[in-house]
Amino acid sequence: MRAEVVRTLAGALAAARLGVVDSHDHLFLSTPALPGQELADFGAAVLEADLFREEGGTTIVQWTPRGLGRQLAALRELGHASRVHIVAATGRHRREVYPPGHPLLDASAVELAAVFVDDVIDRRCGLIKVGTGPACVTPFERTSLDAAAAAHHATGAPIAVHLEGGRGALEVVGLLRELEVTPEAVVLGHLGRNPDLEYIAEVSTTGTYLCVDGPSPNHARTDTALLSVISRIVDTGHADSLLIGGDTTTRSATAADGGAGMRGLLSQTRRTIASRVGDAVAAAMFTTNPARAWRLRGSEHPERGS
Question: What pLDDT was estimated at residue 278?
């Protein structure tokens, strides 16, 4: 069996070398759902990565999927220039974030799976991102999950799920189980946005990884609410499932525009978490847990080219 590795845009990296990880963020993102707030400026993205590295960060997991301005070539150049590891996403988000008529909207599960696999093997994407809504999983979203599962089985890449409002987690995990995706290969995003702490406690027992959001001002709940979520998960005995990311989705949240940006995750949020649940849990959220969550699964890690 091969060593545990994470697929970065620069190639396979030993999972133990990820270092300090922002497990959910966006350096480039363009969607009609956030008009006028596009993350499309290379210089601003470099500044984000540079400031993150200066605070001790070493890896950024970029959740922007296909069709939303992810700019893989620019991400590769940025990673080299800023000396950070970039883990990029393939996948398909919720229908609502794409412009009308976008070709991804009508793609079948077979078609989606094929492009997801190509992205992982040929373009070195390291995760498969899927978006689901706050109610039941729609047929559109079920197609995305079917495709993500097929691509996961073909490549070993983990599946990351945007849960709108932190809801619908149990249904998503159940569907992925039916598709024979093991829970440890799944990262659930935005659990911190759900105020129902007992629901979050139940989700923490599923064996998936749970990613909460840091300081981005356009969507983050207060520090008190975030800490309550983290503390409840720790209380269930599942601190080893916790991840955290900044989820910088708007230009106004970036350092170039005066926001906390990705550096705020390390300069502010990490200390706040440590003061509540201890240094060991905070360190696990940024280092040891991501090293397990973002690794490729399976004994074979397919390569077709660069």
Answer: 97
